[in-house]
Every structure is written in structure tokens, then in C-alpha cells.
Amino acid sequence: xKQKIILAVFLVFACGSIGFxxxxxxxxxxxxxxxxxxxxAVAVDVYDRIYLGTTNSGLSxxxxxxxxxxxxxxxxxxxxxxxxxxxDSNERVFIGTDVGLSMLDDSGWQTYTESNSDLTDNWIxxxxxxxxxxxxxxxxxxxxxxxxxxxxxxxxxxxxxxSSNRIGSLAVDGEGNIWVGTQDAGISVKSGDDWxxxxxxxxxxxxxxxNAIGPCPSGDLWVGTSNGLCVFRDGVWKDETSLxxxxxxxxxxxxxxxxxxxxxxxxxxxxxGDSPVDYNSQLSNPYITSVAQGIRSVYFxxxxxxxxxxxxxxxxxxxxxxxxxxxxVGETDIALEFNSQSTxxxxxxxxxxxxxxxxxxxxxxxxxxxxxxxxxxxxxxMVRARDAALNVSAFSKxxxxxxxxxxxxxxxxxxxxxxxxxxxxxxxxxxxxxxDPDGDDMEFMFDWGDGGQSDxxxxxxxxxxxxxGAYSVKAKARDDRGKVSAWSAPASITVQRPNSAPSRPTDPxxxxxxxxxxxxxxxxxxxxPEGDDIYYLFDWGDGTDSGWGPSSASHAFxxxxxxxxxxxxxxxxxxxxxxxxxxSIEIGGTPKPIIELxxxxxxxxxxxxxxxxxxxxxDLEEMAVDVYIAAVxxxxxxxxxxxxxxxxxxxxxxxxxxxxxxxxxxxxxxxxESHLPxxxxxxxxxxxxxxxxxxxxxxxxMLTFDYAGDGKAY
Length: 714
Fold this sequence. Notes:
By secondary structure, the protein is mainly beta. The protein has two helices and 55 strands.
């Protein structure tokens, strides 16, 4: 085949009958003289002359960019409805129609039908010509016929091993076997006098209706059906539908450069043996009916878009290389040598790239290259060729290499075991383990997650972190013959800065005596070993504190007495000192009377009696006072004054005796006999001098409680 195409190229140069455009183009009734845009069949002869069969309009023929048309009205073509086309090396064109076979050669037209020949059915579906220029003709219902220009031979289910008389597609492989795609019974293969049938029951064929068959120079055979794509390789069927975006395959061609072309119901895909290319964006989803190879172009008949073609340009790619030759078995880490060969149509010097099937490819180089596989397994080695113009061939058929022995890598180590928390500058230690399937000695490398890695060594290693953060520690193993495992799963460690508590604060400094309700300021100090910010808490000795704040704080005491003040220090990271020593202050003066409001219950329900009480919390001389009680009910903002619960303040007149305690004294009792607003009730209480309604002697005290109705959820 390679010699044949090279010869054809030189003939084309001599006759000048082909263009050198690169990429996609088309011939339609708009831009050319073809008879119809409904192209049902296409063929190309050895001189690159194109024959185009239409659905109902006859035959178009192009030579030297000039189209000539043949119809039943201006020639001896038997029918304008052309179903199949094929050319042989003797410049004969076989034209299959719905009413018989027309043949055009140097002497003109000949017609063959059931009435004047051994043709078994006038409805012809497929034609292919073998290397002996014998035409094989598949009919709609009469089986298979062969015609050498003189004599006929027929093959039907009654006289041969063919599986059906309904033929849809034909192909001849590199060994001369005839592949017969039927419309209802799979594929029958004629090899000499023997027949073999493959169908959807005994193979991976997705359908018994075979639309197209494409032999490959590698020996593979590609089969398209309406339900998917298969390849027959080394006696084994494989489903390759995943290469396509549309499973309805209408035409298949493997060109001399090894590119697989698939014409689909909705477009075209090209496959180089490695990655498929979808051309739909360039072609607007054509419905492909047929395909044929020219010298510099591949031609596609379409249902509505005329004749489409892909041009390789002025420089053709190299032919598909031979399958690599080389050893079939090997061991890991031992280089194996492989060799291939290709031919360039223009005679260019070629470079080769091998795909080793282990995730790597060779650099472009000589036809002989070596590779060492690192893991056990089966590998399909392929190669492609590149010419001086950087045109690349398709990948060759694969050569299978089995790496069954050799050094196997250790297993990925266990997750490193070590601390989850450490401080900057602290020495940490992590350990791991692994298993080597060959029993080799191992050493380990740790990745500390901070940009550093250990050298290979023992399975337990130490590391010091110099910055705060969260780090992932992982390990890998290496055996004593250099095989390296995968990384382990990571372990997590959080590194913090070291932190010590502040020193014990100094005893608070400030006044040693004072009077009630007057603010006094006190100060202290402390030191933090790391220089962290320090916050201070003053305990005033009266049951209250300052809250965390600066080293000075102020406080007003409400009751007469002696108070012991101390202070606690805490740094910004929460480390606390010990309490300081005490500073005493004696508080005197005349206090304001203060009442503390209280409630018998925190939550009341329908039927309860609300009881509020007040307790005097200062020691006083006897004095007359007015007590005010006010409430804010749920959903309101107005103060309502007890006991009238009006908006006018109503005082309760009391006389406070020295050291008196009027509590529990029920200022307010109210049985809940009907629904009140449910929610939070807020009560306020204050003591004023008699007759001075708003000159408060005490601070305003507040009490809250909840009323929950009957306690049911509605």
C-alpha cells in the first residue's frame, strides 16, 4: 500500500489534477457544477479523479477541477439513483444503482442486470474492489456477487456460509479477506473458501445492522453500526463508541497515514490512535453518507451539504509507522529497545515518538529508542512519525510488552505518628513504617510541610519548626535498589509560639480611705516574659470586679466598710498570673438608701400570684422615704406605676429604721385570673425623699421576670 500511494503522488504531480489546500472545504451546487447536494456515494481513482453519486440526480465526475455530469438522459447510465461507487486500477468505475450495475471504462458504458448477467439482485447497496481488481457487489436481498470484468460468482445463504442475503457494506482487508456487513445478521468474513460470522450475540457488535467497515493498515478493522463503534484487533472485539459524540456511524475510513475517519449521522470525528478530534464546529453537523480517500484529501458524501473534503495541504504527513518491534517481556528498571519504520510521501527525513503507555512518551528522535518500565504490568507501546515540515502521522498499532518481574516499589508508608501540637523551637519527632513486597531494606524521607524535607534515613526523624502555623507531615519509602513508594497520607501538627504567664502583679496602689458613692482609682503593674500585651482584673472586695482592662481602674463603693482589693494579670494568649497581694480601703460616709427588688419566681403561669418584694441593703439612721415601683409590660414602652398601674407616679410612704430590713416585704401581689400579655415584664424601684418625687436618694433598680400564659404551645 505504501508503494502504491507514493506512485500515485508522482502521477498526480504529473497530471496536476489536485489542489494543495489545507483544512476543510466543500463542493456544492452553489460553488461547483455537481448535480446535487444530496450525495449518496463517493469514490476516488488512482489518478485522484473524484466520482460523486447522488440520491436521484446521476453521477458527477471531476478531473483537473472540471466537473462532468452523467445522467440517464445524456449517457447510458442505467439509473440516476446511485447507491454505491468503486474504482479499480484499470480505470474502471463500478456504479451500483437501484436497477442494476453500470460500469464505465475506456470503451464506454456497460450495464449488468439480473436479465443479462448473473447479478442476483438489481438493487445494489455496496461495492468494493480487491487487489486483483475483482469487484465485490453487495445487493439488497440477493446476497454477494463478484465480477472480474468477464465472469460472475454468487454467494448466498443457500450456497455459502454468508449469514444473510441483505448486504449493507463491504470491505477488503490487507490479507485479501472479504468482510461482508449485512443489514440483519452481523458480519460474515470470507477467507478463501471459509466463512466466519460475528453478530451481536457472539461478539461485542452493538447491532446486527452493519453500516460501514474500515480496514486499517495496522491490521485492525473498524466497524460502524447505528448503535456504536467497534474495532476487531488481533482476533478480539472492543467497544470504541466512547471515541464518538454520536453512536450512529454511517461511514468509516482508515487512510494511508493511519488516521481513522468516522462519518456520523451528525458530523465527523478523526482519531489518530490516541485522541479523537470532533470537527462539528467547522462543519455545522452534516449527515454523512459515504467516505473515500484521495491522495491529498479525504472526501465525505453528505445528505444535504454536497461533497465535503479535508485537505492535507502541499506536504503530506508520513504514513502510519509499523507496529514497534521489540521484546514482549521484561523486568522493571531494565531498558528495553524498540524499533519502527515509516515512509514519507515526499521522501523527508523522519523522526519518531514512542508512547510507552505508562504515562510517558519519548522525545522525538530515531526509529530505535529504549525505555525502562518502573512498574509491573502490561503496556501497549505505539509510535508515530514526524516529517521535516512537522506533519505528524497517526499512531501505529500497539506492541504489547509484559513487565512481569523486577523490583517492586514499597507500599506507601503509614501516616506519620507524632505530636498534634508543638511550640516554635521545640524538637518534634515523627515515625512511620512501610512494607516492601520484595523484602528489600527501606529508608524514609519526611516532608515537614514547611518547605523542608529530610534526607532518606531512619523511619523515625526529628524536626524543629520556626514559625507558627498548621503543617502537614508526610513520608515516602525507598528500597535499597532505588524504588520509591507513593507519599503517605498526611499527619497534621499545629505549631504555636511559646507562652509564659505574666508575673504576679504588684499590690494595687491607691487611697486607703474614702466615702461611699465616690470613684477611686487604683493601679498595678506586671511583666510578660514574651512581651505580650497584658490585661488586668481588679477584685474590689465587695462582690464585684473591674472586668479585664488596663493597669488602672476606678470604683465607687456603695456601702460602709473595709474592703480588700487585689488584682490578676492575663496576657493576650490567655496565660494568667497569680493574684496580687491585698490593698485595704476603709469606706465611710452617709449612704443612700438602696432597695433590691426581687421576685418569688422567675416565670409565672396563668393562675399564679405574682409577688414582688424589696429589701433594704444599707445601714441607715431612721428616715422617712417614698418608694416608687414602676413596670413596663410586654409590647409597650410606657412606665406604669404601682399600685394604680397608671402613668402618674404613686409613692408608697415608708419609715426606714436604723438597721431595718423590710423584706421580704410584698410591695405587689396580683393573682393572675385572666390572660395577660405573654412575655418579659420589667419592674423598676427607687427611693426618694418625701415630697421630692424625682430627687432620687437611691439608684434605679431593675427586675425582670417572664409570664408564659398556660405554658402550652399553640
